[in-house]
Each structure stands twice: as C-alpha cells, then as structure tokens.
Design brief:
globular, 52 helices, 7-stranded antiparallel β-sheet, about 45% helix, about 15% strand, alpha+beta
C-alpha cells in the first residue's frame, strides 16, 4: 500500500489562515505548494468535482473515504510537478505499476464504502469517483505518451542540433519551469539549448511539426512569468549560447529615403549575451549601453527586447525600444524576420514625431527575401503621454518582437545604438529623516532642476539616473547610514549627475543637496569610481526584501506621473497602515483564544488548584486585550475622520498622541498614524502590560507562549515596500509573502488589486519595464488588449509561441489562476529523512533563493557554451525538487529511488566549492557550503559512488608516514603522470581530444568509460616535478621533531620568527613551492618554524564530504600546534604563513591567536610584499596572474600583490582553472567544461600581452599549488603559456636559476635546528 505518514505538523507550520470554518485548507498530502485543496481539485478533477467535494467535506462522517481520495490526488499532484519522480516512474515500470495499482485500489475502497440508501449523497460520491478515475487514467496514459513523444522529439530535433542540446532531464526542466517570480504552471516537456543562430529557424519548424508550443528563454530573470510555460506540451528554447558580441562600430544607419547623415556608434549582439557584457564592451570603447536593468548581471539581450527592459539610464535614453537599431527573429511560420529602425533619433522614441521600421522576411532554407514592408506609427503612441516608461501596450503598433514577451517569435540577435556619456560624473546620496510625504516631492524638484528651464539643464548638465529606496528597503539591504544620526533614514535617493565641466557638476550636486536639506535630508557626494560604486551597491541588493519570507514576493512595477508621486506614496502608506493594523487585530484575536484556554504554569511542587494560582490574571489580561483591540479597531475604522473630529475622542479610547509633525492640508486621522504621532504598538500597548500581569516564574511559560503567538501572527503580516527609478516615475512595488500561508497570499493579492487601482487613478500605468505576463493580465481591459489579440491572431493563430500567454478566455488560463509556487515550510518536518539527516539543514540553507541569477557570472559551473548550466540558481531549484522527491518516497514507504540519489550526487559534483556565489547573492546563500553538506549526506547514507582516482588522491593527501608518501608519490607522479601524458599524446595524434576540448559535451550523470578516459587525458599533467618532497630533501620527515630554519649569519634577536604551514600541495606534490617559500623567508632573515612531519590542513576532506575526517585532522593539528607552541615558547611567533588558499581557509578555523598569542595568519606573498621584497627590471616574458578560487590573500587583492612583487605589468586572468582540488580526477568531464572557459581567458590574455609580437613569451602565475597543476595543463595552448608559482618565479630571479639546490645545501649546512617535540 502507498499509505502516507501523518503530515499534521507540516500543515500546522503554515501559520495563521489555514483553517476556514473548521475545514482544513490543505488536507491533500505531499502538497508543498501555495495551492489549497481547492486549486488542486480544480486542476485535476474540475470545478464540478470541487463543488461536490466541498459539500461532502462539510458533512463528513468517518473521513476515511475523503482521506483515500486525498491520497490519490496527492500522488498525482506531486508527480505532476516533479520531473524527477516522472523520470523515475517512466524508467521503472514496476514502480509505476505499483503506484497506479495503489491509486485504483484506493478508489475501489471508496466505491466499497458507498451508501446507496442515501441516494443524493451516493450519487454525488459516484460523480466524484468518475472524475477521479478519469484523472487516474489520464495520469496512467501520460507515461506512454511522454515516452513516445520523447522519441519523436529526439528523432525530429536531433537532425537539427546536437542530441545533448535536447534535454528531458529534471535539472533542465525545473530550471526552465519558472523565472525570478517562482510562479509555476506546467513543466516544459523538453528544453533546447542550441549552439548557433543558424539552427533556430529549423528548430522552430521542428517544434511546429511536433505540436509543441515554443517559449523563448534567456537568463530567466523575468518578474511577471513571461517565460513560464502554461502548456504541458511546451518546449523552452534557451538562447544563452548565442553570445556573439561584435565590436563597437561607427555605422551610418538607414533612413526612409537612404542613409542618414552621420555615423553613430553601434554594437551587434546575440540574444544570449548577458546585458552587463554589452555594457562592458561599450564602456571599453568609451560609450554607454543605455539598457541597464537591475538584473543586468544575469539577464540576456533577447529578454531585454521581448520585455522592452529599462533601468536607471532610461531617464536619459529610454528603454530597449528606444535604443534598438535592428533585430532578427524567427517568426511563427519558421521563417526569418529582420526589423530595422529608420531615421533613428538616438534618443527617446516618443520624442520623435513619426517612427518607421522596415520589416524584411526571409525563407528559412535559403535566406531568400520573401517580402518587405514599412511600418509607420506616431512616436507618442509608443508609451502613455507624460510617462518615461510604459510596456502595457502589447500591440505597440504591430512592431514585432519588442514588448511581446516571446509570443510572436524568437529573437536571435540585435544591433544597438550606443551613446556617449559626458566625462564628469558625480554620485549623490540623499538620506531623508523626515516625513515621507514631505521627502517625496524632492524627486520632482531634482528632476525639474535638470529639465529644460531648470538651472542644471541651462548649465549643460544631465541627471543620468535617480534611484529611490523606501524605509523597508533601507532595512532589507542592510543599509549603513552615512549621516551621523541615530537610526536609518525614511527614504534614500541615489543619483548620478553628469556634465563636461567638473566645477559645474559639483555645483549642481551641491544645489541638489541644498534644496533637499529643507526636507530633512542630508547629502553625500562620491567622486572616485570606487566611492561611486560603493554608493550604488545597496541599490543592487534590493531583491533581499523577501529575505524574511521564503524568498517569494509579489512584484509590481507601476509608473506614476512624477507630480502624483506623493499621492502614490501616501496611498501605499495607507495600505501599509491598514495591513499592519489588521495583523494586530488578528494578534488580539489569537491572544484572546490563547488566554481563554488552558494556560501553561510552572507550578513546581505547589499543591494548589490552577484557578487559585491564576486568580484574576486571566480576566485582567482578557480585559486589557479587549480594550487594546477596541482602540485599534476604532483607528482602523476611522482613518478618514477629520482630525478635528477624531482628536476629541482620543481619551475615550485611551489614545496617546505626540506632537503632529505631518503638515498635510486638511489632516485626517490617517495622517497621525502616518507620522507616528499615534502608534499601534504590540510592545508598549500589549506586551508590556501582559508581562506585568503574568509576572514571575509561575507564569514564565505563559509569557513564552504569548511571544510565540505574536511571532506566528506576525509571520502572516503583509506589507508593501517601494524602490523606484525615481527619474522617470517607475515604482517597483513589492510584497513579500510566505507562500505556505494561504490567507497571507490572498491578502497580498487584494493589496495588489488596490495598488493597481491606485496607479490607474493617478493616471499611471501598471507596468514600466517588467511586462505583463501572467501576473498582470487581469489588470488590463479587453479594450487595452484588443490590438494585441488581433495582431496575435494574424501572426500566430495556432499559438505556436508561448501559447496562452497574454491571452484571455481560451483553454489555457493566461493569469495566475492555475499558477502555484513551492514552499519549503510545508515540507514534513516530522519525516524521518528530514529529522535524522542533514536534508532539513540543506533545505533551510537554500530556501531563501530569489532565483535572480546574480550568481551566474561568477559560477565556474555555469558556462552555457560548454554545455554547463549548473549555476547555483539552477542547482537550488533542482535540489529543492530532489528533497521533495526524497520526502515523498520516504513518507509513502516505497523507498527513495537510487536514481534520485545519483541525481543528487550529480548536483553536488557540479561545484568547485569556490564560495564565489555568496558575494553577489542578495540573501547570502553559499552553494559551496551546501554542496559540502550534500556530499556529507551522500556519504552518511552510503549513497556516494566510489571513485578510484579520488580515493588515491585523498590517500596521498591524508598519509603521514614518509614511506607511504614516497610510495604513493612515485606511483602516482612517477608513473601515473607519465602514463597520462603518454595517453594525451596518443589521444591527440588519433584526433580523440580536440573535439571534446573545443565542444565539451553535457555532463548529466557519469559519461561512458571511453568518454571518461578521453576527458582524463585531454589536458596533459605537468612534468619535470622534483623527484623528492621538500621534507625529504631537507631530512626533516621525522614527526617527533620540530624543524626551525634560519640563516645562521643572522642573530636570533634580529630575526622575526614565523610558523609556516606548507600543506599538502606545497611539500608533497609541488615541493618547489614549499622550498621557494622557505628560501625567500630565509632570504629576508626570518626564522621559519615548520610543523613536525607531514600534515594536511583538513580542507580536502571537508570539501569532499568527509566532514568527520576533516574535523579530526583539524582537532589533531590544533592539539599538536599547542604542543609546538609550548615547546618553542622562547620564540615570539607573531605570524603564521601559508602558501595555499585552501590551507588559509581551513587554518582560519584553527584559532591560531590562542595557540601563538597575538599572532596573525598571512599569505607568503603578502608577507614578502610587507617586507619590501620585489623584482625590478624584468624583461622578456610577459605575465598574467590567475586568482585561485580560494585566494590565500585576504589583506590585499591578489592582482595588486602580483603586480607589486613582480615589479612589472601583470594582467588578471579570470575563471577557474578546472583542477579544483580533486575535481579533475573525480569528474574529469566537468573539469573539461570548466577548462573550456579558462582556455578562452588564457588565449585572450596572451594575445593582449603579446600585441603585435606573437613570439613574446607569456607566463601565467598563481598563488595556489593545485592551480599550478591545473594551469600547467594549458602549456600547449595559446601559443605556449608556461605556469609557475609567484614565489618560485621570484626565487629564480632573486636567487638564480639554481636556487633550489643552493637553498637545500645552505639549509642542510647548519641552517636547520631540530627541536625534539
């Protein structure tokens, strides 16, 4: 039987609002989503079935039949929304048959329990059973249909693109089921990741042949669900590989009657180019790319066009539409379409009287032109008059692609105009501490200052962006107040002022500050690029507003005319005050219910009745709560009461009012609440009195329960937060929601209704740049959508693109009616697999992910062109589904599928544990730490697969016995490396390697043995390594002695003592690194203390998922180092030196300040820089510096140290080398993909350094032994680039080419003191 374990605690965790008239909202098991039972039944059985079920559930008798039906629906629902469960059932006919049999068995049991004597009720049950049986039959059929359609898809689309570009796997499907909203409707049937533009038209035709609706998708950063599939038979075409980025070119653009007069700077981009890359290319050429949404680090060009994206620079040059010169797309008939803007005005499109576009269509097969037409429209029609942004007109005069949200074709490339920013920029930050209603008009004053007629405009200055954060955002982003006042500001404005004259710009910024000083503001000016970047940093972290919920928020972006902005902010404040007061009234009701029940007492051994112990306290508390509730209810009901009428009643309700600071004309009671002169406070009005009533140890538990009640109710409080592109009135209105709280979600939806009504009443529009999608379609009238619907019927009547999107009344619901969002908080916390493993901890670590994609640019395992799409965002989405699958299968007692453990391991493998994703993440998720926990879980559950290469590497790193180390070293390095290099030469000569390196295949699961072998040999291991370890050369392998190395010519009291921890890589593998470090310390006269014997820091074990071993090594080492410190207490060791980044990261946990009091932990390079040691006058070779993922340099940036030490130009070479500890031996297939990106960087860097002389030798330096091995593998690439460690390179130049032998001789000749431990 497929019987579930009880999940009551999980349902209880949903919080307030999960009960309605005594009937649970969520009784269907395995439902970890925002859906209540109603939405699930409507989705699976239909409206009539819900009508029957809702009637029956109110008159249930034993409830057994209902539970069995719910279990049937729960099974179907969880499988429908989890592709990992679908794949497992598809691949395992026995498991599938068992599930289907269980579903039929339950329905049969319900049939057996029917009561024919109750005719009307029995008929209703029969109708319900018929609907349920149909749902089970559809569920059963879908597996056969899915298998058949997959075969057809592979056959049809495999002729057009590589087979690994056709993806049915769980990770690909869940990564493309949603965007930044996390709304989900249907999983895509298949995901395509084509390699080139040329494939697109044929792919579209193939999808049309297969009957699949096409959803174009780039970075997945949308906020309205534009790329969320509404149809189960959908294909998402991911354009992230289309990253062709041309040079900045001065081109003469076309006019209607021939070329225009002058050339203008332009750039051609593929649809998959990340927005920020275009901005960087433009900046390098001295130009500006105007499209700069907050998502610029993750969003793609195609999406910018489809949504008509904007950003802060839109105040100067408009949105995507204003800046497009040309774009290319595939139309719903599978042919090509090129759209060209004629007579471009190089400014805001609505300022041009008439706008013309040339549309040219081409045949998909031979690119022969089919037809041509000129599209003409008034520029003013492009957006609502008086607004800087407006994307609500989906028709947009019939212009294809732009603002259509992927409903009329697939955009593949575009050419953009680039602008010239004036040379002088100053950033101003204004912090407002007064009333918001008085601060908001400052926005108008500032923008007017730079408009025609203003002093700034007269001086030739421009406002290049003005961004706003309200009080809630200021708190969410952790804003650090710049003013010397206590507390955070009520509002922050950040703006850029640009011009050609430094004095004029500074004068304008000063004027801006002065004009806002009268509104309670303090101003600050940033001059340097670093300071300006720091000012803007807080603005980039606005997604953190939903940190305190489960990372789900309702996101709106209305546009308000600037003169009405104060009214809009007042309206939002009104909504917030009402929502807050309603939540407090709910708190009063919850407290009343609690106080009327059995109060928990800590009576100890007192033999007195409960009523005597409580006495009058219960009555006093209830009376007090009732009085406070009466007061708050009166405030809520009378907000519009004129203040002159309201204030005389304050005494009757016990309202205490401070001085009114709100200077509104005709003030009302609302204005007192707005300026906090009248407050509704839980702390002062409720808690303080209740704490006094229930004082003492006896009532300690009561006080704790009161706090818990408050916390639970507060969790359901809805509020609205604002930040805006203030220069053009584009207000981002966000409502964070706990999606497991059904009532909270409904309250938020009602708040959105009011916000949209408010925006329209102020002559604004409901979207400025986010689009309409599924979240806002209900707020546009049929009249407003009519033009688009006619256009859609003309160009795509069959719904070949994004079927159902932006539509109303069809078979697919284009709104949120059928959309849900998952919720970690609804998972079964009582489940054994959650309680007894780290799964609960993993789920907690990832639950706040915002899906914003800011982690993608820095992630080593997100390289789309290398078929590597394992960004932390995608891995988190995948991990959440796998956790759901574990929980479901464990609760049904069918056992967790081995396939799911393998998929879980695959996600964990796709991480280099570099921790770089944490920094850009608005909610500070470190997927490196999550990966380590996943690996630990796999080991603890016995599900981690054995890897001989990794096992050998870990044995080498962990071994302490010199003989063992020598044996493994001679076997692994002496023979193994040689064999690998031989394999590389043979593979290269046979042509087995080049294709894999140039076009790495996808790495879903383990590749075949042959492919693994080729992956392992495709980059040669380094040769010419020292034959013995550094300890063997110095005869200090004995772990009972502490080696102390110093120059005997330097007096002891003149020599600074350091403790050097070489680590595995610096003394076992690349012993020249450890020796060079010692030699340079010897050179500067330092006394160097080495640990006794061979030691590992414990990091390799920890990161590999062997936490217990890593912890044991750490503990043993710390104990040993305390013994060393006691033994050498005559040496004043103030510095611990490392030469490896992972050692640095692990040793930071050792608490060395307790071992060597007052000491610091420092990298060898920073130490040498501190000592003033550097090279001078190097000629010949040019240098690049590879920053390790785990940089050992924590005081200064690595590139700064490299330049300082080398005394010559050293360029930074970005990206992971692909070695990543043991990754290259445990998963060489992943390493191949990672290296693909690094090789590009090396080749680009080498070309830049060589310039015109291709024979110039180039070396790549690093500060990590593991990276040294990884970089050595590229020695044959980019015209020959040798790798070396910085200190080794310094030793060669300072001490001579024979430095190693000479240093070993010096050290062995009286330079080593061996202290018995």
């Amino acid at each position: 039987m497929n019987a579930p374990l009880p999940i009551t605690p999980a349902v209880t965790a949903a919080g307030a609002g999960d009960d309605t008239d005594g009937v649970r909202l969520r009784e269907i098991p395995y439902n970890y989503t925002s859906f209540s039972d109603r939405e699930i039944v409507l989705r699976l059985l239909g409206a009539r079935a819900w009508e029957i079920l809702d009637t029956l559930r109110h008159e249930r008798r034993t409830g057994r039949s209902a539970r069995m039906l719910y279990e049937v629906l729960g099974d179907i629902w969880v499988v429908q929304r989890n592709p990992y469960l679908q794949d497992d059932l598809l691949d395992n006919p026995k498991r599938r048959a068992a599930l289907i049999e269980a579903l039929h068995h339950r329905l049969g049991a319900i049939e057996a329990r029917r009561s024919p004597e109750d005719g009307e009720r029995d008929a209703a049950v029969g109708e319900l059973l018929t609907a349920a049986r149909s749902a089970v039959e559809r569920f059963e059929r879908q597996f056969g249909e899915m298998a058949e359609l997959r075969r057809r898809v592979i056959r049809v689309l495999g002729r057009v693109t590589a087979k690994h570009n056709v993806k049915f796997d769980g990770l690909s499907r869940v990564a493309h089921v949603t965007d930044a909203t996390d709304w989900r409707v249907e999983y895509p049937f298949v995901v395509l990741t084509p390699d080139t533009e040329a494939e697109m038209a044929a792919l579209v035709k193939g999808c049309i042949e297969l009957g699949l609706t096409i959803i174009p998708r780039g970075g997945g950063t949308g906020y309205t669900g534009g790329a969320v599939p509404l149809d189960a038979k959908s294909v998402v075409i991911n354009t992230e590989k289309l990253i062709s980025l041309g040079p900045v070119e001065e081109l003469v653009l076309p006019g209607l009657d021939g070329p225009m007069d002058k050339p203008y700077a332009t750039i051609r981009t593929g649809a998959g180019v990340v927005t920020e890359r275009v901005a960087e290319a433009a900046s390098a050429a001295g130009r500006v790319f105007a499209v700069d949404p907050t998502s610029a680090s993750a969003s793609c060009i195609g999406g910018n066009i489809a949504m008509n994206a904007g950003g802060k620079k839109a105040v100067l040059w408009g949105t995507a539409l204003d800046n497009l010169a040309w774009w290319k797309m595939v139309t719903p008939d599978g042919n090509w379409l090129e759209v060209e803007r004629l007579n471009h005005n190089f400014g805001k499109i609505h300022d041009q009287q008439t706008v013309e576009f040339r549309l040219r269509r081409f045949d998909a097969k031979n690119y022969k032109q089919i037809d041509e037409e000129i599209l003409t429209m008034p520029g003013a029609a492009c957006r609502k008059e008086g607004l800087g942004k407006d994307v609500t007109d989906k028709f947009l005069g019939g212009v294809p692609g732009v603002q259509k949200e992927g409903t009329d074709g697939l955009i593949v490339a575009a050419r953009w105009v680039l602008h010239k920013m004036p040379p002088v920029t100053r950033t101003v930050c204004l912090e407002f501490f007064g009333q918001v209603r008085e601060a908001v008009p400052a926005i108008i004053e500032i923008t007017d200052y730079f408009k025609p007629g203003g002093a700034g405009h007269a001086a030739g200055l421009q406002l290049a962006g003005l961004e706003h954060l309200d009080e809630r955002y200021v708190r969410a982003v952790g804003y650090t107040t710049k003013a010397k006042r206590h507390g955070r500001p009520k509002m922050v404005l950040i703006g850029d002022v640009v011009g050609h004259d430094d004095t004029a710009v500074m004068g304008a910024v000063s004027d801006v500050i002065r004009m806002t000083n009268t509104r309670g503001a303090e101003g600050f000016i940033a001059v340097s690029p670093e300071q300006r970047k720091k000012f803007w940093l807080d603005r980039s972290r606005t997604a953190a507003i939903s940190r305190h919920t489960n990372a789900f928020k309702v996101n709106e972006d209305v546009v308000i005319p600037l003169p009405r902005m104060g009214d809009y902010c007042d309206g939002i404040e009104r909504i917030n005050i009402e929502l807050s007061t309603q939540n407090k009234l709910a708190l009063c009701d919850a407290l009343t219910e609690f106080l009327q029940g059995e109060l928990p007492l800590d009576a100890g051994d007192a033999n007195i009745g409960r009523d005597e112990l409580i006495g009058e306290r219960r009555k006093d508390a209830l009376d007090h709560v009732a009085a406070v509730r009466r007061r708050w209810q009166w405030l809520l009901d009378n907000m519009d009461l004129p203040l002159a009428e309201a204030e005389p009643q304050f005494a009757d309700y016990g309202i205490q009012a401070a001085e009114l600071s709100n200077r509104a004309a005709n003030p009302k009671l609302f204005h007192r609440l707005q300026d906090y002169s009248v407050r509704t406070s839980w702390k002062t009005e409720l808690r303080a009195r209740l704490d006094k009533i229930f004082d003492g140890v006896l009532f300690g538990l009561v006080r704790e329960e009161i706090k818990k009640v408050h916390k639970q109710v507060l969790r359901g409080r809805v509020f609205v937060a604002l930040h805006m592109h203030a220069g053009d009135g584009n207000v981002h209105t966000n409502i964070p929601v706990n999606s497991d709280n059904y009532e909270m979600l409904q309250t938020a939806n009602k708040a959105v209704d009011r916000i949209m009504e408010l925006a329209r009443s102020l002559d604004g529009v409901i979207s400025g740049e986010h689009g309409i999608g599924i979240t806002k379609i209900d707020y546009l009238t049929d009249a407003e959508m009519a033009g688009f619907w006619q256009y859609k019927a003309k160009v795509d009547p069959e719904g070949r693109f994004n079927r159902g999107k932006l539509m109303r009344g069809g078979p697919l619901k284009g709104n949120l009616d059928n959309a849900y969002t998952p919720s970690f908080n609804l998972m079964g916390h009582e489940s054994l697999i959650m309680e007894q493993t780290a799964i609960d901890e993993i789920a907690h670590d990832i639950k706040n992910c915002l899906r914003c994609g800011k982690c993608k640019p820095v992630c080593s395992t997100h390289v789309p062109r290398a078929n590597l799409l394992y960004s932390p965002r995608n891995k988190i989405l995948s991990t959440s589904l796998l956790i759901e699958a574990f929980l479901y299968e464990e609760q049904t007692r069918r056992g967790v599928s081995l396939a799911h453990w393998a998929e879980f391991e695959d996600v964990a493998d796709h991480c280099t544990v570099c921790h770089k994703c944490e920094k850009p993440c608005p909610v500070d998720i470190d997927f490196g730490d999550v990966s380590i926990k996943m690996r630990n879980l796999l080991r603890e559950q016995g599900k981690k697969s054995f890897n001989p290469g990794k096992a050998a590497a870990m044995a080498f790193l962990t071994a302490k016995d010199p003989a063992t180390i020598k044996l493994i070293r001679s076997t692994m390095i002496g023979w193994g490396y040689k064999a690998q290099r031989l394999g590389h030469r043979i593979g290269k000569s046979l042509g087995l390697i080049q294709g894999q390196v140039q076009h790495p295949p996808a790495t879903l699961g383990k590749p075949p043995i042959k492919a693994q072998v080729i992956h392992f040999i495709n980059k040669p291991m380094p040769g010419g390594l020292p034959k013995r370890t550094s300890r063997a050369l110095l005869d200090i392998e004995d772990d009972t002695i502490v080696p102390v190395i110093r120059n005997p010519k330097v007096k002891r009291d003149e020599s600074e003592a350091v403790f050097y921890f070489p680590g595995c890589g610096s003394e076992r593998l690349f012993s020249q690194v450890g020796l060079a470090t010692q030699a340079m310390l010897y050179q500067v006269g330092t006394t160097t203390v080495l640990p006794p014997g061979y030691l590992c820091c414990g990091y390799p074990q920890t990161s590999a998922g062997e936490e217990d071993k890593g912890q044991q090594i750490t503990t043993d080492n710390r104990v040993l180092f305390h013994r060393v410190a006691n033994t050498l207490n005559y040496l004043d060791i103030k510095t611990v030196i490392v030469s490896c980044g992972t050692c640095m990261d692990q040793l930071m946990k050792y608490q060395f300040e307790k071992i060597f009091p007052g000491c610091r932990l420092l990298d060898i390079h920073e130490y040498l820089m501190e000592k003033g040691l550097k090279l001078d006058g190097i000629t010949g070779a040019r240098y690049m510096y590879h920053e390790p993922c785990h940089t050992p340099m924590k005081v200064h940036s690595g590139i700064k140290v490299a330049n300082e030490l080398m005394g010559t130009r050293v360029d930074l070479s970005d990206r992971c080398c692909g070695e990543s500890g043991t990754l290259a031996v445990s998963r060489p297939d992943i390493s191949t993909q990672v290296r693909f990106r690094k090789q590009e960087e090396i080749e680009k860097g080498a070309e830049k350094l060589r310039g015109a002389d291709a024979a110039t030798p180039v070396k790549i330096l690093t500060s990590c032994p593991s990276c040294l091995q990884g970089l050595s593998r590229y020695s044959g690439d980019a015209g020959g680039v040798d790798a070396d460690y910085i200190v080794v390179e310094m030793a060669k130049h300072i001490l001579g080419d024979n430095w190693m032998a000479e240093y070993v001789a010096k050290a062995n000749n009286g330079g080593i003191e061996r202290v018995l431990l």
